[in-house]
Fold this sequence. Notes:
Layout: H1 4-11, E1 17-18, H2 31-44, H3 56-68, E2 78-81, H4 83-95, E3 101-105, H5 110-116, E4 122-126, E5 128-129, E6 133-134, H6 136-144, E7 151-154, H7 168-181, E8 185-188, E9 212-217, E10 229-232, H8 235-249, H9 254-265, H10 269-294, E11 300-301, E12 309-313, H11 320-331, E13 333-334, E14 336-337, E15 351-355, H12 361-380
Bound molecules: pyridoxal-5'-phosphate (PLP).
Amino acid sequence: MNNLREIMALATRPGVLSFAIGLPAAELFPREELAGVAARVLRTEPSALQYGLPLQPLKAQIVEMMAWRGVRCTEEQIFLTSGSQQGMDLLSRLLLPQGGQVLFDEAVYDGIRLATRLQQPEILTVASDPATGMDVDAVEALLAGGARPAFLYAIPDGHNPLGVSLSREKRHRLAALARRYRMPILEDDAYGFLYYGEEPAPPLRALEEEWVYYLGSFSKILAPGLRVGWVVVPPPVAARLSPLKHGADIDTPSLSHWVVSAYLESGSLPAHLTTLREEYRRRRDTMLAALREHFPSGVRWSHPGSGMFVWAELPPGLDAVDLLRAAVETERVAFSPGAIFYGGAPQGARYMRLNFTSLPPERIEEGLRRLGRAIRALQEKPGAELASPPRLS
Ligand SMILES: Cc1ncc(COP(=O)(O)O)c(C=O)c1O
């Protein structure tokens, strides 16, 4: 079975305990506060329900948030989007010619493939080490060998799906390559505010202003249903994005922009981020402990310091899609098989991505107990090869 739609239908079947999707914890949405600010905005700001220009005060507030990430920028460099997914879509339309080249990790957030598919690009890939992330030597070799991608897409913090963050050294090297080859890097920082130990190294945009186009989002730190994101780009790029966004959705959603701005104005975001980090750290630790307890010894997994995902590798001889099918049928538990992030390529066959933020700790424990049973059952099936040590450490 290599049909991605079929895989996702299995992984999201109702009644199944699912680690498949990158959902934030719904019970942590600050609903009371959002209800309060939304009611006030609706009562006092008719323009929140009107067509309108992008909300300037929100841009000023985002400039301040970017400073928390160590990025210096101006309001002229902020372009508001309907989620960072729209940022990817608009930047792809702007930068990528039909049939042009793009450069991705070989295991990458599938949304970037969707955002670029209309241009039918030639997708160049570099290996993604589960422990250290993007292979920057390979990026350099491709560029030195004459590759000229319209952009490189990178997720330096809390990578989806690997859960890894790039070292300071790799960030400096990527920023330098972008400068040397005049190659835009789309830096997706969807998870940059969600770290569970020391504050991470600054994003690429803090190292390179001209060639790094930063994508930010309120989806993982406030609520994805608001559909508010932003990009940080040089002002001439922002000017060229503007008609594209106008053509897509007439610069809306105004109400969401007003609500997010009023929420930020209340000063509640820093405390909310602290709550998210504490709770998600607890859930990550629960998942890592449950993996140790319930998974057979031949499986390896990553230890993410940020983001929402653990990336696990099954022993040779086991296929993650076969496992998903069996786990849904017999144990009513699901995950995302690696094939999704490899665009269906066979290298993804033994990987699984496990989300640790959407379920409370006791459900994580229960789900992994079931999944461990499903792996053992598959291993014991006649025909399964004996496990030999996998690569991931
Ligand atoms: C790496 C990454 N980028 C972007 C997105 C989309 O975010 P948004 O809701 O801001 O469009 C996601 C969603 O899961 C993601 O994982």
